[in-house]
Predict the 3D structure of the following.
Amino acid sequence: MTEPAHVMVVAPHPDDAEYGVAGTVARWRKEGRQIIYVICTNGDKGSSDINIDPEELVKTREEEQIAAANLLGVREVIFLHYPDQGLEDTPEFRKKIVRLIRTYRPETVVTADPYRRYVWHRDHRITGQITLDAVFPYARDHLAYPDLLKEDLQPHKVKEMLFWGSEDINYRSDITDTFDIKLAALRCHKSQVSYLDSPEGQARFRQRYADLAKEESFEIAEAFHQVRIFW
């Protein structure tokens, strides 16, 4: 039987988890929490280089994601290999997330906010919606996907969800002591974040997360919409 994890992070693309929650992941790891990453797409369209081979890009981005996760101490990275810009809200996709929730039985699930308005990547909206639906009600209800019961994947009740990229922030996580780890993890995604090679780029990046903490007693934050689920 798979050992349960405390946290499952469901990210649309390689690098999204590092932008959204890596500082908090690093803090959780210091507290002894076990983290699982689920990466929904292969990132095969994540480049402005017109000469790049998409298959090579997929390999590169997977290697970058594994390097970032290893640096953060993430226990396992699961790649679903859907095409970039190709996610759809389907029963098949939802069932995959339900299966993983029932397998790893996390207390907390973190993903992209599906309700951010206007300019927001479609893969982010769909990933957030699928994950929210998978948590409630599908992972909870024993009559949802009854074939999973035959695999001894019993219903599971997640206690908390955190959504990054939210316009309705109600929780800020202190990453003052783990910001440098977040930055290092994001810089593992070399195909995506060349702007972080310069001191100016790093300073702007730091300021972005310092701004999220301006109403708090700590210096640097990641911000979420938090939903606590009382069953």
About this structure: The longest strand covers residues 221-228. DSSP finds seven helices and seven strands in the chain. The CA atoms of residues 88 and 126 lie 7 Å apart.
